[in-house]
């Protein structure tokens, strides 16, 4: 009876154990790394040399070997099949490697764009700061300005202290305010 009440509840899952067929797991990153290494190797002179040697040896074996040892006669149909099979696997691996490189390039381009935006904002900030400093310096008396003012005051004082040109009464030199 307890078993039937337990099953009657909708919020309690059934205790049914199913044997699920386990799919083989694959690590897409590891496979992608393999594809990149394979594509990188296929773009080397070593790979071209190995493929050339393979084809030459295949052709020489099937032309020069005794009839009982030959496995692919002159049109080399089996060799064509092998090369087509190699190409059918190589093309998707190369495309996978290119897609992974494109994704990396996209991430790097986004990081570069963000760094450029930060540098642009920093440059705008520094330009505003330099402009405000120029305005502040424009309002401040500079050393050259102070020197010229002091020289003119000194010249005025020297003019007043020269005897004979002006009256001897210092009260007359002072202008009324």
UniProtKB/TrEMBL annotation:
One Pfam family it belongs to: DUF1003
TM ranges: 47-64, 76-96
Top-level taxon of the source organism: Bacteria
Record bears the keyword NAD: no
Keywords from the named record: Membrane, Transmembrane, Transmembrane helix
InterPro entries in the record: DUF1003
Protein name per Swiss-Prot or TrEMBL: DUF1003 domain-containing protein
